[in-house]
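Renewal narrative, Specific Aim 1. Our central claim is that a sequence can be written position by position from structural information alone. The example that follows is taken directly from our test logs and has not been curated for this report. It begins with the C-alpha cells describing the chain, in the order in which they were read.
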C-alpha cells in the first residue's frame, strides 16, 4: 500500500471556464487560486477540496465511467438552500430524497451536465 493524503482533486472538462467558475463559486464556495497548462484550479477556503477545470467542449459533460461526485453538507437543513443555489447558478435538480430520517440528499447537474450529489450524513 502507498500512503497518500487521499483524493486531492477532480479535473472536469467544461464548455466554458468562466461559467464553471461562477457555478462552483456560487454553489460550493470554491475560488480560483491558480491557472496554468490550460487548467484553472479552485479550492474551498477552509477545506482541501480542489476542483480543476479544463476548457474542452468536445468532452465536457461526458462521464467516462464516473457516475457522480459529492459534497457533504454540514447542516441537513441546508438541502433546500443548496438546491436553490444550484438552480440560481444555472444547474438543475435531478432527484432528491432521504437515505433515512434526517439524512437528506439531492442529485443535481452543473451547467455542463456533471452529476453532483449533495448530501448529509
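The sequence written for that structure reads:
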Amino acid at each position: 500500500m502507498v500512503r497518500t493524503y487521499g483524493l486531492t482533486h477532480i479535473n472536469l472538462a467544461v464548455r466554458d471556464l468562466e461559467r464553471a467558475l461562477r457555478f462552483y463559486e456560487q454553489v460550493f464556495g470554491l475560488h480560483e487560486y491558480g491557472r496554468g497548462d490550460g487548467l484553472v484550479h479552485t479550492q474551498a477556503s477552509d477545506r482541501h477540496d480542489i476542483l480543476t477545470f479544463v476548457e474542452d467542449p468536445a468532452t465536457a459533460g461526458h462521464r467516462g465511467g464516473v457516475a457522480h461526485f459529492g459534497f457533504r453538507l454540514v447542516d441537513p437543513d441546508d438541502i433546500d438552500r443548496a438546491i436553490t443555489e444550484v438552480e440560481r447558478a444555472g444547474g438543475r435538480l435531478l432527484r432528491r430524497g432521504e437515505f433515512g430520517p434526517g439524512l437528506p440528499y439531492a442529485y443535481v447537474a452543473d451547467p455542463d451536465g456533471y452529476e453532483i450529489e449533495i448530501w448529509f450524513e
